[in-house]
Task: structure prediction
Amino acid sequence: MSEIETLLEVKDLYVNYKSYWYIYKVLNGVSLKISKGEKIGILGESGAGKTTLLKSILGILPPQGRIVKGDILYKGRSLIHDKKYLNEVRRSSIGMIFQDPLASLNPVFTVKEHLLDVLKVVYKDHNYKESDLISIATELLKEVMLPDVERVLNSYPFQLSGGMRQRVVIAMALASAKELLLADEPTTNLDVTIQDQILRLIERLVNEKNLSLILVSHALGLLFRMVNTLYVMYGGEIIEYGDARKILKEPLHPYTKMLLISAPRLTSSKIGEGIKGNPPDYRNPPSGCRFHPRCPFAMDICKKEKPKLIRIGPDHYVACHLYSTSDLEKTGSGI
Amino acid sequence: MKKVKNLFSQIYRSYLFRRTIISFLSLLGLSLIIFALARVIPGDPARMALGPRAPEDVVERYREMLHLKDPLIVQYYYWLSDLFHGRLGISLVTFRDVSADILEFLPATLELMLFTAIIQIIGTIILGTISGCRPGSLVDGALRIFAYVGITIPAFVWAILFQLIFSYYLGWLPAVGRISEDLRVPRVTGFMLIDTILTGNVRAFIDALQHLILPSLSLALGAMAQEARILRSSLVENIGKDYVVTFASHGIPYRTVCFKYALKPSLLGLVPVMGLDIASIIANAFMVEMIFNWPGVSRYGITAMLRKDLNAIVGVVLVVGLIYVIVNILVDILIFILDPRIRRR
Amino acid sequence: MKAEDFQLSEEIIRKEREMRRESIKRAWYRFSRSKLSMTGLIILLAIIISALFAEYIAPYPSHAGLYINFRDAYQPPSLRHLMGTDMYGRDVFSRVIFGYRYALMMVGMVLSIVVPVGTVLGLLAGYYRGRWIEHLIMRLADIFVSVPPLVLALSICSILEPNVFNAMLAVTLMWWPWYTRMVYSLASSLRNEPYVWAAKALGVRDINIMFRELLPNMLGPILTKATLDASWVVLIGAAISFLGLGAQPPTPDLGTMISEYSAYLPQYWWMSLGPASALALLILAFNFLGDGIRDVFAGE
Result:
């Protein structure tokens, strides 16, 4: 992996949210790396910190969120400390598709206003006229397979269907995503029939434009189909990562195992039959391994010490005390 | 042209039209309640108006004139038919025509309301936007304090305070009235600012403007403080929303993100609150016009109330209700035009 | 109805109640932790106690009403007279404490009538949406909101006799529609919640659905509005008597005092300052409390 050019590297990231009364320690030392052309997936329950991770990369955490430790490097340069570079990257390297197409388009602006304002900053140095930008916007909308572009451009978000809205969101993301696309559960709030179309679209665009992809989801089949490397998150930590097929076939971490077993049940009518217990309370997270209160194999050491990510096999790492016997090669928390 | 026509047909079909009808019917209901209240109270309005020493036959004729001897519903009918002819009856105290009096005093009040509304809107937007886009900043902290001060101190206390500070101690601004006594401005529209311009009297225009500042500031302050606070929290909330964050994620500068994408939805949410506050200016004007001796409808109304001048009271309440309802309808129309979510439904 | 449906309905209702109990507990916890609302509560309690025991707390209880002692007139604030004395030699501080009595009486009377009446009417109108009862109640409410409350209250006061009791009556008459409107919109959105449907399916009587399922879920907004409205009632009461259409001198009402004493400005500034700042303090306390309560419920 290391021979290929590293695009983005998240290094031991800690993010806290401060509310009026509490501090929520959400990300707890997350590391992640993506190379050019690589497609990685992040799997985890809702509330595992996936969205926080993506938002930290682009520096768009809500005001009460703060990066307390760690660094994010894009092509070797820090996005946290160099705001000018961050803006450059936001403009023309990374694009992000947000979770909810209903919520990610501004209700009081037309699609045209959305796209033009984005294109204006993306092509800030090109001296384009407005008509040029409109033709670029039209191109983008055609690329995401929207019919009747003229009408779409002059529509307000609420006049479009969910699927159409998500296509507009993708078009906006594409305007900036020349190298890396971040997709935060891009199909969660869509009809089942539309979900597949949107996924195929993203898949095709990523392949055509040779983009790198970070796809966040809790849909296993989707991840299996679209990514090479899989990261599993729990309670703001990466607990297992490696080759996607390997993890899906042979999960090591108890949480991953339970997640994979419970997956089919998510579609059944009964409620709350997934994994017993609740996601950790970030105000006062469990000591040691954050999963230990829900883990059927919890040992004494799990309460005391945070397990480090260790290499189990080629392209397969796990953070669990069950595997930290001395005969396995320790790699520390780095990658 | 076609666009305008389209808009009108939309308005006609919309809930707006229904609300307007309901509002005017409510005013009619209001008139019935007030009228009944004014007529069923013990005491003889004719005797009260003419005084205890007036000869009985004069009082009797006066009763006939006011239809006081007919049943209540018949009296209401007479009064209502007068109302539709624009007559509100004769003042029981001054014997002047109430509608003529109100028409004379109305422009002063409307001018005050309008000026107050402008101060209120501009102040709200400036304060709310600055503190909303920079939460935790110095301006934000100051606004927090100002908001509580503004809510806590009633308009009539502001009025007294301002008069004391700015005209008594500092002598910067005039204390009472609409215009200095030595200036004569012929009445054209009744709006002092417009009349002075129409007659080309610059000195009088500036003088009139100076007279407007203190009353409208005391009227604007409370609502401004509250609205700025609402705008601030709405901005803070919107800035965290994905539909604003999207723009930040494309490297659009924070200033643009805040002043454009967060501000517009926040402002649209504020319009109804603002509208109600602007319509309510006329209520606080009842105190402020008294303090600044402002020759408006509200001062006329209070004078009538203190003298128990029933016809004038009913007239003032109806006119105030009319203004209140019209401002509310205008605000509804404004929202309809500004907010695409409602317009295109 | 099948047994299975029956069970499901019961479960939905049970879960809903459990959640509500939990959220009330959490709300109280957060309320007690909020500096703002506790400050408001403490100020308010202090004011209520001093108003209740005004005879014992005020240094010169006899100065509340008609009392004349020209030798002590126009005294600036001192240790003996915390807020100075007025033109008749009355202790302003004592009068202010008695003034709180009238202000709080007004709040108590207005809210204790308006909140229950407005709420019940709003519940009826919202729950029976589309029936004649909705139209009757809401159109009646429309009439009363077609003019600013202060103006109608003023005119009612003047048509009747200007005094403290009529001022309270007038404000009460003006205020119910605003509650009715709020509860109405809450009720008409809540009536389609699953637990209401479940209760209907179980054959629970309408009146029980309204008061045992809908009402408890509106407590937050109603409580918030009541507290914030308390400050408005104080304000409107003061405005009415300031204009001479409420309490008449020598009643020690805050608004009456401000209007009476402002004639002696600016030389005898302390006379107006006392009642004006007392009024501000009471309004501030209600606002602190109301904001605190709103934050607590908004946090849900």
